[in-house]
Amino acid sequence: MVLAWYFNPSDEDKRLPHKKEPNVPVSIEDLERKTGVRCLKVDPEGYQGNETYRTLRKERLYKYEDSIDVTDRKPEFDEILKTFYIEHLHADDEVRYTVGGSGYFDVRDEDDAWIRIHIESGDLITLPAGIYHRFALDTKNHSIKLVRLFTEVPVWTPFPRPADNHPARLAYINSRKLKDTDA
């Protein structure tokens, strides 16, 4: 089950949970309401035949799929993790399905505070285009395997913060304002 909480910033190891004292949990419903991040649980065993997974791909028009295996057995492991931890956004939704290992996605809420989301095998997370975020492994693992879904030919271009004038960021901010007026 995906767990989320407000991140306690410090210089400690980024692989630690960084929970505030006392912890300030964020429910999956509040996570979606505050950030637009969506989370699903999909059994990783034979996931491609899973009805939830297939329905998501069809409804969201995800035509392309690949996988990434971030492991300490690769020589570029440390550099990859440094790149993933730089705060950035993407022009498209970032859809990641964890089929092995675990880690953290950190996302910014409407007040620019970090929310830490712990993902593990079976968790599928969708970060909306334009949301500032970053990724770190947790202390349980030295690897994570993620399936990535795309609507078009796979492109993974990070735009480091500040990218406040990027069209995806402007659209994200506008969509969040519309959500606030609907409430």
SSE topology string = EEHEHEHEEEEEEEH
Give the helix tally.
4
Mean pLDDT: 93
Amino- and carboxy-terminal Cα gap: 27 Å
CATH architecture: Sandwich
Can you summarize the main beta sheet? 9 strands, antiparallel
Helical residues, percent: 10-25%
Stated plainly, the CATH topology is called: Jelly Rolls
Number of self-contained structural domains: 1
Our Rg estimate from Cα atoms comes to 16 Å
Strand content: 25-35%
CATH 4th-level superfamily: Jelly Rolls
- Tell how many strands the DSSP assignment holds: 11
The secondary-structure class comes to alpha+beta
- CATH domain class name: Mainly Beta
Report on the structure:
- With 183 residues, this protein is an alpha+beta fold.
- The protein has a single domain (3-176), classed as Jelly Rolls.
- Helices cover 23% and strands 34% of the residues.
- The chain has four helices and eleven strands.
- The chain has helices at residues 28-35, 51-59, 77-85, 167-182, and strands at 3-6, 25-26, 38-41, 64-71, 88-89, 94-108, 114-120, 123-127, 133-137, 143-150, 159-160.
- Strands 1, 2, 3, 4, 6, 7, 8, 9 and 10 form a nine-stranded antiparallel sheet that branches. Strands 5-11 form a two-stranded antiparallel ribbon.
- It starts with a strand and ends with a helix.
- The relative contact order is 0.23.
- The mean pLDDT is 93.
